[in-house]
Amino acid sequence: MQQLLTLINKYIVLIVLFIFLLNIFEFLIILAINSKYSKLKRQYKNVMREIGTNDIIEILSENIKKTEEFNSKLDKFRMELSMINNEMKAAIKKVGIIRYNAFNDVGSDLSFSIALLDSEDNGIVLSGIYGRNETATFAKPVERGQSKYPLSAEEIQAIDKARKAII
């Protein structure tokens, strides 16, 4: 114990100086923390003044409620979008039209074949045959670009033109 007291007496000036510097360092840290706290408190008060309330819990609960409403509406929009996408698959997206003369004695390309197809090349091909004395119209179903009924060259051209159409 005596040796410890002798050591302390020998270095008392350095120990006091060290403690003094440590206190100054601690004081500076406290000033920095206090400055940041004051700035944060001012910002908080400004925000609360702009919002018109002093209760942060009220603000948070209101934001949570709005977020839940937003998520509910977003889910509803996603369902509607899914339904629209399903309907769009069956919508007519591709059209191919071929006009031609069905008979040599009739001009002006008054006969036609028109293919109306969806994105999977399903639909119909309509043909109108114009003659001087009569006109006939035919409709044939198309599945994956083919029909189970015999197709004329013009109907095949109309289907091919529709299949190549850009969606």
From TrEMBL:
<dbReference type="Pfam" id="PF14584">
    <property type="entry name" value="DUF4446"/>
</dbReference>
<feature type="transmembrane region" description="Helical">
    <location>
        <begin position="12"/>
        <end position="33"/>
    </location>
</feature>
<keyword id="KW-0812">Transmembrane</keyword>
<keyword id="KW-1133">Transmembrane helix</keyword>
<dbReference type="InterPro" id="IPR027981">
    <property type="entry name" value="DUF4446"/>
</dbReference>
<protein>
    <submittedName>
        <fullName>DUF4446 family protein</fullName>
    </submittedName>
</protein>
<keyword id="KW-0472">Membrane</keyword>
